[in-house]
Amino acid sequence: MRHRATTALAVLTLAMGPTGTALATDALDDAFLGAVHQGNMAEIAAGGDAQKNAVSMCVRETGKVLVRDHTLLDKGVEELGRKLKVALPRSVTPKQEQELKEIRKKARTRAYDNLWLRAQDTAHVQTLDLLDAEAARGKDATVREAARKARPIVAKHLEMVRDCMMHMPPRHR
Question: Which domains does the chain have, with CATH numbers?
Answer without folding.
Answer: 4-16+23-172 (1.20.1260.10)
